[in-house]
Give the backbone structure.
Amino acid sequence: MVGFSMDSGALTGNRSEIDAVVFDFDLTLADSTPAVIDCVNYALASLGEPAAAPSIIRRTIGLTLPQTFRMLAGRADSAREAEFAHRFIKRADEVMVSATRIFERVPQALEALRRRAVRIAIVSTKYRYRIEAILAKAALAEAIDIIVGGEDVQRHKPHPEGLLKALTRLGVPPSRAVYVGDHALDAEAARAAGVRFIAVQTGADPGSLSAFLPLAVIPDAGEIATALDAAAPSGRPHRAEV
């Protein structure tokens, strides 16, 4: 099922008005949960911090590493946050690419967008070089036009810097783009950038995204072409069964 809902102030449009689809990466296009759990608990243990439960760690995916430390440790400590990030990255360099899998229907979804001559980008807090390696392993590197990773911005989501940088490089205005993500930070960044948002339900808290009145709510990124086809051109709330 694809659900559609737009408030009266939302940008309207149908598939023909969308020139670019920008995706979040983790839990939108790919599942890195086992690797993230490994890296987080490796970093925590090496700092003498207690291990975190996998279900709690999953809820940190999409946050920056300092934010992750603060959430898991329950305190702010800039020195410990920096050391946590250093140790997480060290471990991630060993395990992240091999332990991350692209969601099953993503390759076909990207090909469907290509057939529509839609530009495709990724904007993520994950480092660009790591996203590039994961895509290369899955033979999808050529499917993406632009990647803006965590090392490419000064201000992370929910700030719109990453989205606006990607759209500038694509030459596409915000009014002719959509951002697809699994997290409230994605929805907030889209709103700040003036970009329509499509929510996928593959994240840790999919129920929280309805509050942002996304253009569409889809079970996974594999439904993106269907969502664009079925979006109501009038801007009135609409639901479609697929």
